[in-house]
Amino acid sequence: PRPAFAAAEGASPPLAAARTGTPHIAARPGGFAPLVLMPGDPRRARRIAETFLEGARQVTDVRGILGYTGTHRGEPMSVLASGMGIPSMSIYATELFRFYGVRRIARVGTAGALPASVAVRDVIVASAAHTDSGVGRLPADGVTLSLAPSYRLLRAAAQEAVREEPAGGAATHIGPVLSSDHFYLDRPALFDALERRGTLAVEMEAAGLYAVAAAEGCEALAVLTVSDHVRTGEALSAEDRETCFDRAVRIAAAALRA
Ligand code: HPA
Asked: Could you give the ipTM of this predicted complex?
């Protein structure tokens, strides 16, 4: 038998989590639903479990990365924090897809807007993720992978966004984002070049999630709330973050169920 945590090779059969979990997740096999919402922040994971899931129970807390499983309008759904950055997101997404039978992950996070046409409180559905990380170059010499979401999830999110759009309220945008390894990225010329190419915002995880989903043959999407504006420095208050964030979670949950 293959060891539980060997690297996946080609068309190897799916591996189950060991009884004690994986290196970074303590849940038992079957502890996660096939559909998973992933915020960056563990406390936000708890809040999503409390407000969006019915009958949620905590299934893991390794390193304070909280995970819960319950149902969403009767359909089994889980939530697990990703932590910050592509490496952290990649670890949790890989273990969910590879060892827990998860089929779809929707990241629900925050992002900093680039163009003036995107405002704080708006929601961005990431139809592509550029990155300065190496995740898109790993699989093949000389090839840069296009890091993109599942079309089915993207289409469902777009449809739900139309239903969710409050009259005169925050808008929903669909387009590319930059997933950077750098939060303190003071590079106006880079921002200019990306903005000219239609990039809507900067965040730190979507590209990792999309790369892992592609590698594992699963589906992913990132739905981002604009928490701040990279150009103007405008930022949402902590209170505003919570209420604005709910719309992204509703869009992401609807996409997962599609
Ligand atoms: N940069 C990276 N990640 C972010 C930002 C940002 O400006 N805002 C929210 N997440």
From this structure: 0.95
Q: Does the CB atom of residue 204 touch ligand 1 within 6 A?
A: yes
Q: What is the mean pLDDT of residues 117-126?
A: 97
Model pLDDT for residues 190-236, shown as the tens digit of each residue: 999 999 999 999 999 999 999 999 999 999 999 999 999 999 999 99
Instruction: From the CA of 109, give the closest atom in ligand 1.
Output: 10
- Return phi, psi of residue 97, to 5°: -65, -45
pTM, two decimal places: 0.93
Q: Distance from the CA of 175 to the center of ligand 1, in angstroms?
A: 16
- Minimal CA–CA distance to 172: which of 181, 184, 164, 180? 164
